[in-house]
Amino acid sequence: MEQKLNEEDVKRLLSNPTGDTRTEIAEKIASQHQGLSVGERKLAEDIFRLMVRDAEVRVREALSRQLKENPTVPHDVALALARDVDDVSLPMLHFSDVLTDEDLIEIVQSQSPEKQVAVAGRHSVSASVADALVETGNEVAVATLVSNEGAELTETTLIHVADKYGENEAVGKSLVERKALPISVAERLMTKVSENLRKHLLARPDMTPEAAAAMMIQARELAVLGLSNSESDVAALVEHLYRVGRLTPSIMLRAVCMGDLTFFEVALAKLARIKVENCRTLIHDAGKRGFEALFEKAGMPKAFYAAMRAAIDVSYEMEYDGRPNDRERFSRRMIERVLTQYGDLGVDFENDDLEYLLAKMNQLPAEVLGD
């Protein structure tokens, strides 16, 4: 067991010792700091203040390494070490609880990317520090932050991360694997991450089929109701949903109500096992018998027929006019007509679908085409 700080140590330190000796004494004093008497601690802290200005990095590095988890180290000493070169600062930034949020934010905003990563990996990161890290543009730091379950990340912050960094593979992976992931964030990720990460997102244990259905159509809404304008991309999405058992009547109802007819047509063709071109012909059959037969062939619930028929009829009556929110107004008219079928004809929606449509009505502009 090492001896405590004594007069001999002080003499050695003051007699212009070598760097090796200064490093040795720095480690000794710092390692024993919590066990010192009041007088000894005051002397040790005065020595620390000298050592943080030591010309040799290894002396300051030894001090930082020994003090990084010491809760009684003076704030000015901790901050001086945290602002030092990376070799000295990183242990303090990663571990020290003496540093305040204000200290950390100032360092995150003004110093090196390596320091930002160290702060992002702390056992606890407050919401304000997390927001400062997100604004740095440092993708490695952001990926580290999102991987850190001790980081306080609000839903707003996570959405911002998904929007700004979601296409970065490391950040996307960290988001997909985060224990608590709001559905609003998952929606953003669906249009950002790779196909492989999309599969992981849908396979999350907290992702119920209902949540997945809502997320898929919400994600398409966020991408202007389509992962792209390419039908091949829609077909790939439909194929994936079918493969994992999530190409449900609910998601198809929600799609058609939001005016996403391409998704509806490709999905119905998949379920009916016919070509998309043939499916379109039957959906838009003037006599309407073709759509009825197609609906039955696809195994769709009869309760959904009137609602989906109404939505398709609305699509014939309306066109986008190019004015602001034209798609939203189109969708509102779709939902109004579908909800009319619900009220007048007794269309039997699941509660989740009815709540979705009512909530969506509240989000869309009140004025509609044709009024």
The gist of it:
The protein has 371 residues and is an all-alpha fold. The protein has helices at 7-14, 19-32, 38-51, 57-67, 75-82, 86-95, 101-110, 113-120, 127-134, 139-147, 155-165, 169-177, 183-190, 195-202, 209-222, 231-243, 249-257, 261-272, 276-283, 289-297, 305-317, 326-345, 351-363.
What is the distance, rounded to the nearest whole angstrom, between the alpha carbons of the first and last residues? 87 Å
Helical coverage, percent range: 55-70%
One letter per element, helices H and strands E, the order comes to HHHHHHHHHHHHHHHHHHHHHHH
Overall average pLDDT: 79
Counting DSSP E segments of at least 2 residues, the number of strands comes to 0
Task: Supply the key terms.
371 residues; mainly alpha
Account of the protein in words:
The chain has 371 residues and is mainly alpha-helical. Helices cover 67% and strands 0% of the residues. The protein has 23 helices and no strands. It has helices at 7-14, 19-32, 38-51, 57-67, 75-82, 86-95, 101-110, 113-120, 127-134, 139-147, 155-165, 169-177, 183-190, 195-202, 209-222, 231-243, 249-257, 261-272, 276-283, 289-297, 305-317, 326-345, 351-363. The N and C termini lie far apart (87 Å).
Draw up the topology in text.
Layout: H1 7-14, H2 19-32, H3 38-51, H4 57-67, H5 75-82, H6 86-95, H7 101-110, H8 113-120, H9 127-134, H10 139-147, H11 155-165, H12 169-177, H13 183-190, H14 195-202, H15 209-222, H16 231-243, H17 249-257, H18 261-272, H19 276-283, H20 289-297, H21 305-317, H22 326-345, H23 351-363
Helix pairs in contact: 2-4, 4-6, 5-6, 6-8, 7-8, 7-9, 8-10, 10-12, 11-13, 12-14, 13-15, 15-17, 16-18, 17-18, 18-19, 19-20, 21-22, 22-23
